[in-house]
Design a protein that fits this description.
This protein is of the alpha+beta class and about 90 residues long. Helix content is about 25%, strand content about 25%. The protein is built from three helices and seven strands. Strands 1-4-5 form a three-stranded antiparallel beta sheet. Strand 6 (about 65) and strand 7 (about 75) form a beta hairpin. The longest helix is centred in the last third of the chain and has 11 residues, at about 80-90.
Amino acid sequence: MKIIRSGESYGRTGSLINKDKDRLVEFYDMTSANRGDFGEFGQMVSRYNLQTIMEAYDSIIRNGLNLHGDTPAWKVSPAQMKYFYDHIIEIM
């Protein structure tokens, strides 16, 4: 997982710049890090506006966050998302 602030690069190759004031959250599959065309973070799975994830707190804490419906490994558990929420407050 990677937090992208305004002005920082993002995307699979880091060639995009976040021009919004809103932060983004990118989720990566680290099992593919530095393999094939994947970089140090691995395969980029999904990207959300941080605000969207914050607004869905109740649902995500109950159910987790499914990043890609047909790939079980790309589901973030409720416990993992609780850890995320507990620590994201520190940078907001």
